[in-house]
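The authors assume throughout that readers already know how a fold can be written as discrete tokens. For illustration, here is how one protein appears when written out as sequence plus structure tokens:
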Amino acid sequence: MGIRSVAVHSEADFESLHVQYADADICIGPAPSSESYLHIPSIISAAEIADVEAIHPGYGFLSENAHFAEICRSCNIAFIGPSIEVIQLAGNKAEARRMMRKAGIPVVPGSDNTVSTSEEALDVAHQVGYPVMIKAALGGGGRGMRIAHNDVSLVSAFMTAQTEAEAAFGDTSIYVEKCLENARHIEFQVLGDRSGNMVHLGERECTIQRRYQKLIEESPSLVLSARQRKVMGEAAIEAARAVEYDSAGTIEFLLDRTGTFYFLELNSRIQVEHPVTEMVTGIDIVKEQIRLAAGERLGYTQRDVSINGWAIECRVFAEDPYNDFRPSPGRITQFNPPGGPGIRVDTHIYEGYTVPDYYDSMLAKVVAWGRGRSEAMARAERAMEETVLEGVSNTVQLNLRVLQHEKFQRGEIDTGFLKEFMSSE
């Protein structure tokens, strides 16, 4: 796009590839995120020193922080994302549920608003029936989430979720919803501009998860019929219109075994798994974010969006899958990423890089594209087999075994698949 980039980084990330690739870089503080990536004054100071026009917040830390977006606006710096009002709404998942109900979008049964005591949570659980999910209203990334199967476990889960929510998000607000077991996690990528033009870029199947965090994603979904895809896509557009969405965002749904879908949440940022959508649509979503933040119109309609082929993404984490996914920081002694037709690797690491123990443990995203699902799976398997990553425990071999599992290959999966798969290993 001809835009010069300035990478901000903590002292721990000085050797990260994003720092080396940027046109310029500025250190914003020590390793702890509270003193660097979450320290708004340091980021704004860096932006003013570099005289930047806009800030892209990525998909973590301050990417869904309305206060940060408001400060950017007050400093005449464009925040590459939706409006402050949308960020505030999407950030409060309980409020987003209320808005979706108002717009006529099916919502997972649960509390109408947040619940402040375990007694209130028990009342909701008795209404919708166990099992239920206890969730932080401002949560994300699996934090502040607990499942309860009875009254005793609910009280314990409520207290734990509140503690986690306060520590991670500075807010103890909790809501309760029915836990849909054996469901699938289907999400739709949406794009909207400030003139009200809106499209979706098809769905992503994000059902393979551990601890409510995604491991393998694909697009499109094998389970959706053409009619279901049309209905869910239209629901995603309606959900985005309900909040006047004006950037790249994601509408997440749960799909039960009967084919009924329910709104789960709205993500007001780019998703980690956006490359699978880019691979099948040919649309650069980050580029679209920047265009839309600059006030440009979308420039195309739903009829102009087409899905070409199939894409599968495998996330590679520095974690030990057979030790409860315990993080594994340390020095990477060998790293040979895969290549070949249809393979894309997004990563910040290289041989000799030291994985810090301060941040999320994701090391790379390996995406395989094929003309159909079978070719995409074959290429994804080959990519995992080719990947050499030594020095830290990682999920490469786990990804490979999941890809080779007969149930995955047949598309017979649900959100409990990985837990069942791990227990049988």
Q: What stands out?
A: The two ends are 47 Å apart (CA to CA). The first strand starts at residue 6 and ends at 9. The domain at 184-424 is CATH 3.30.470.20 (D-amino Acid Aminotransferase; Chain A, domain 1).
